[in-house]
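tool_call: predict_structure(chain=1)
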Amino acid sequence: MASVTQAASRSSNPLSWLLWPLLYGSGLLGAHEALTSSHPVLWFNVVYVSLALVIGMLERWMPHERQWLEADGETATNLAHTLLTKGLVQLAVVTVTSATMLTATAVDPANRGLPQLWPEHWPLAAQVVLALAIAELGLYAAHRIAHEWPAFWRFHALHHSVTRLWVVNTGRFHIVDTCFKAALGQLPLYLLGAPLPVFLWISAVTAITGLLTHCNVVMRTGPLDYVFSTPALHRWHHSRIPAEGNRNYGENFVLWDQLFGTYFNPPRRPPADIGIDGAIAKGFLPQLAQPFSAAGARALMDPASR
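tool_result:
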């Protein structure tokens, strides 16, 4: 009863209503300053790390779940996944996209030799909003496939193997899972002729949203839950119960969840006991290798897990 009372007290803190828009807005403002600088990738990483540190301090001050503050022995592994898989794949996507666009533009000023379908005459902000809606459909599809198709779940299970949500395991993804989502989310934009700044903004918004959806901080988001992918919605997504966990696939927004009937936000507290019923390997390299072996896949694909 005491823990319930403490949780209610923390959630009634007026700051809990302000934190999500304040952190999200600060992240976007920092992204704008970084992406308009002479070294956008470098300065965005500074913004990203700074936001992560602020969230980490808030997790200690006003945690959503106090039991998620307890060490799980996975911190070093989570950081390795963030830096060496999620981070490097995102950097590679930006680098390859940039090089391809620059090379093709030099040869063909009519924009990569593709039909010019993208509204480049629109203000950049409007282009980014349009791009987010398009990219979100691909990200939604990739995420839903990863849950509903066993061949893809074996890679996505790594992300759901966490037993607590906090800022450090935001980037805990298998490299195959990350590449699949990047392909479905960004390839349509490339084919439509979206310019490089739009790709950079998509990556920035997704990174900022990811930090917030995984944070272990008391945040009350109310009607924002109907539009954005918020911590409240993502905590349901990590439920062990398939009817609850196979929901809220949106990366940044829940537009496609609303349209396709996978939106889930009941009026009760999300579960604190999260994870998978399958067995995950210990350590960074074993976790990367596990889905490729028959024994490893069987361990992950325990029938009770999904």
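agent: Residues 141 and 184 are 8 Å apart (CA to CA). Proceeding to next step.
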